[in-house]
Write a structure and sequence with these properties.
The complex is a heterodimer of chains A (about 325) and B (about 350). With about 325 residues, chain A is α/β, with parallel strands linked by helices. Chain A has eleven helices and seven strands. The radius of gyration of chain B is 19 Å and the shape is globular. At the A-B interface, α5 and α6 of A face α3, α4 and α5 of B.
Chain lengths: ~325, ~350
């Protein structure tokens, strides 16, 4: 019989593994040439999406980035509707017109992923402003990477979030690379969260590979947002253990750094923790098998779905 | 100044209002009727807007609905998009249309795209009000008409009214529309008085208006250029040349039926615009004329535009650059007598 906390931990684990396995499966579908387009994968950053979104209901909203699959799964989109979208089927969550980089589902509080770096921050801020103006209790979360904080749009958004004390959390996933460029070449401050002081909001840096640490820090920030305390800049330190996009061999990540990162990635660490808490490897393997089966069902169903008829290209145009 | 150059406006109630006042009236009516209509912009609250358009609105509707924002055009546009996604109908004021360049990512990549790529789950009911145009010696970065940039982008509606009546009717329709609308106001018209009918209905987007009928040639114009065209038409009428003047009013979607029917009748067309020529609105309008009426054309379509230049500051130079009544008269005569 599992305790409540054991069940909770297992549910976090399941979501992280779902993201990891989804991305792994999708990567091979791309490399095999079966899936069209390009993808930006989330492997190594799973703890952040899961730890943050655990505090959000469907009514709460997020904006995501060009790397949105993890946020989508954590926010409750079904892997089936996502897989259909990634295959460009009209049964996908964006009717096949969005694709990987624009995935979203308003019913689950995920605005269309914003694939222009930094572009989501003002939009999330606007959603938070609307909640305030309409006296609704929801919160917004703007996910972005370390590259985005050097975009002007993010500066403008955080300033507005702060001056109006909006119910929003700016989550900066610092994976240390703007595509291929290391953070030391793009950013002078030691911690990105230091910049929060410039806007007059709390800035918090958390170990983004520790799902429970993210869960706790995000909980505080989201509680503050929900109770009128205004925005927080939450920097989560992490490492992308896959390429920037589908064909990126990641040669810019030094071998030693990469090897070390693989021992510190969030699922390895959370697995160690879970085993120390009395979970069995067998049980964890069982979760992984279930997740794989669900993903495989989604792949098969998506591949079997018909491609949109050419005339659907012109459906929904309005000007 | 009263500008009513030969237009067939037979106002039953001869109330003369400033173009700027007609904008304000439309905003006030919409805000009284619909609590989700909110205004965002720089200096629009206490100050009442750089051109006084939003004067008094903060007092009536409060800070919760008339939001003085930081100077952050891109951020404020994103703010409006987000607020629209979650149930509000924001109207954004750009102090000068030139500043809208700072918001292009939000408008082009996000506002215009969401409805299509999101499978109809999301609509973005925002109105982007931009003060455009030359004539006040504000120089190169405060005088441009950039509506052509937005006509180019699928997913944006573009409106450019010339009269107080159209301002009120089209802005009312724009605010009721569920998609993003760029509303181009001509800053040199703000302080022009024009007749305004009481209780006029909204004017549907996408409908041009035949301002004056004629058979010798068709002048196609929008925004302030309509007044130039109308004056030219009066001059030409005195000389026995009856030109048809069409106020396009909406540039996207363009009312090709109306312009096509007119040019099929007259066989000649001149486009007058204060925007730049190259890849600009006049090029698109002229092409649509050819699509609609090529077999009826007696002469090539002519365009009168802002020359390709940084719009000069000196009043004499600025006037030399702007399309003038005599330019239009000359062009029509060249077409008709060639």
């Amino acid at each position: 019989m599992m305790s409540n906390s054991m069940e909770f931990h297992l549910s976090l684990y399941r979501k992280m593994v779902m993201i990891r396995q989804f991305e792994e499966r999708v990567k091979y579908l791309f490399l095999e040439g079966i899936m069209p387009g390009t993808i930006h994968q989330y492997q190594g950053q799973e703890a952040i999406a899961v730890g943050v979104c655990e505090h959000l209901a469907d009514e709460d909203v997020i904006t995501s980035t060009h790397r949105p699959h993890g946020h989508a799964i954590a926010k409750g989109l079904s892997v089936e509707s996502m897989m259909h979208e990634l295959f460009g089927k009209s049964t996908g969550c964006c009717a096949g017109k969005g694709g990987s980089m624009h995935i979203g589902d308003m019913a689950h509080g995920m605005a269309p992923a914003i694939a222009i770096v930094g572009g989501g921050a003002p939009i999330a801020t606007g959603m938070a402003l609307a909640f305030t103006m309409r006296k609704q209790p929801q919160v917004a979360v703007a996910f972005m990477g370390d590259g985005a904080v050097n975009e002007g749009a993010v500066h403008e958004a955080m300033n507005m979030g702060a001056i109006w004390s909006l119910p929003i959390v700016y989550v900066v996933e610092n994976n240390r690379y703007s595509a291929s460029t290391p953070i030391a070449q793009t950013t002078k401050v030691a911690n990105l969260a230091d910049r929060a002081a410039a806007y007059g909001m709390p800035g918090v840096t958390v170990d983004g590979n520790d799902v429970l640490a993210v869960y706790e820090a995000a909980g505080e920030a989201i509680h503050r947002a929900r109770t009128g305390g205004g925005p927080t800049m939450l920097e989560a330190l992490t490492y992308r253990i896959t390429g920037h996009s589908r064909r990126d061999p990641c040669l810019y990540q030094p071998e030693e750094e990469r090897k070390a990162a693989l021992t510190q990635e969030p699922i390895v660490r959370f697995t160690e923790f879970l085993l120390s808490q009395g979970h069995t490897q067998q049980a964890l393997d069982g979760v992984r098998d279930e997740v794989n089966a669900e993903i495989e069902r989604a792949v098969q169903s998506a591949m079997a779905a018909p491609d949109p008829a050419p005339e659907e290209a012109l459906v929904g145009l309005f000007v | 100044m009263v500008l009513n150059q030969g237009m067939d406006i037979t106002a039953t109630t001869p109330r003369l209002v400033y173009y700027a006042d007609a904008i304000r009236e439309a905003l006030v009516e919409a805000m009284r009727r619909d609590p989700t209509v909110v205004l965002f912009g720089e200096d629009i609250g206490r100050y009442g807007g750089a051109f006084g358009v939003t004067r008094g609105l903060l007092e009536e509707f409060g800070e919760g609905r008339v939001v003085d924002t930081p100077i952050a055009e891109g951020g404020v546009t994103g703010l409006a998009i987000g607020a629209a996604l979650t149930g509000l109908r924001p109207v954004v004021e750009y102090m000068f249309m030139d500043f809208i360049t700072l918001a292009m990512d939000q408008i082009v990549n996000h506002a215009a795209k969401f409805r299509e790529i999101y499978g109809e789950q999301a609509r973005v009911p925002i109105v982007l009000r931009a003060a455009a145009g030359a004539g006040r010696s504000y120089g190169a970065t405060h005088s441009q008409m950039l509506e052509g940039w937005f006509m180019h982008v699928p997913g944006l509606k573009v409106v450019a009214p010339s009269t107080a009546e159209d301002v009120r009717g089209l802005l009312t329709a724009a605010m009721a529309d569920d998609d993003p609308v760029l509303f181009v106001e001509h800053k040199d018209l703000y302080k022009v008085r024009m007749p305004l009918l009481e209780d006029a209905a909204p004017i549907p987007l996408g409908q041009a208006r035949v301002l004056r009928e004629g058979d010798a040639a068709t002048i196609l114009a929008y925004s302030r250029a309509v007044h130039v065209a109308a004056q030219a038409a009066m001059h030409l009428a005195r000389e026995g040349v009856a030109v048809e003047v069409i106020d396009l009013r909406t540039l996207a979607p363009l009312d090709v039926d109306t312009l096509g029917a007119s040019v099929r009748k007259t066989g000649r067309a001149i486009v007058v615009t204060e925007a730049f020529a190259t890849a600009g609105p006049a090029a698109e309008i002229a092409y649509r004329v050819m699509e609609q009426a090529f077999a009826y054309l007696e002469a090539p379509v002519t365009r009168i535009t802002m020359p390709p230049m940084a719009i000069p500051f000196a009043p004499s130079l600025e006037q030399a650059a702007l399309p003038q009544v005599e330019d239009v008269v000359r062009a029509v005569k060249n077409l008709v007598y060639s």
